[in-house]
Amino acid sequence: MRFAKYHGAGNDFILVDARGIDRDWGALAAAICERNVGAGADGLILALASSAAHVRMRLFNSDGSEAEMSGNGVRCFAKFAVETGIAAPEGDDLRVETGAGEIVVRLERRGPEVTGATVDMGPPRFAPKEVPVAVERDPPVLDLAVPVDGREYRVSCVSMGNPHAVHFIDSDVAAFPLRELGPRVEHHPLFPARVNFEVARVLDRGHIVSRTWERGVGETQACGTGACAIVVSARLQGLVDDVVEVREPGGVLTLRWPGSGNVFLTGPAAFVYTGDWPD
Predict the structure, then answer these.
(1) Nearest to 132 by CA among 154, 153, 155, 161
(2) Domain that holds residue 145
């Protein structure tokens, strides 16, 4: 099976033209994403035909579970779909059917090459049942105590088509014990669909540094929907302005959200290599 590898700010994916192919995609994702004996990636993305948009995207995490959406992944997907001829955009806009609904990706190009994109990520959702988070209170939930091993970690709960819990700190993000705490928060009973867990520090009104523990993956170099959730949470608390750069281990993403309406995410998309996976 032919595949290609791409990354968006270090968040890497295996891309497959899956039109007309039927197989156990979850099992393939777990095998091909394995970093020691597989191709190595944070997720597997499939390109499929769509009756509602230009093309359909399915995303499987590296543990084989299916996810709704990835902000970095959809940029990689758009580059793959357009440059291989799977889908033709309208001008610079590619409409992508995802598990979180239709997403519009505005391509950035250098000649025939797609170098990045701005993604209309849609509006954030705050109702506890939409995140979901197992509390009964009025939205938004911006200061929820999550108890872990006798300590409480305060999080803001946001859905960007997938669930996020954002924890703000004033200390060094790199020193935060994310790999130890991340799986505990991901599987916490407060989050019935599990959760993506972000730790973030606001540097000033236009800059944030962050790390993400992704549901079904582990710590990643970047998380597009996570960056959206961080900026939305910070904006609601009056900590940032409308346009914010989020620096993650793999690179910088730019977010625009004026406090209501849709969130716009801008970042790079890069090709790595193609290969053949033995069937």
Answers:
(1) 161
(2) 141-261
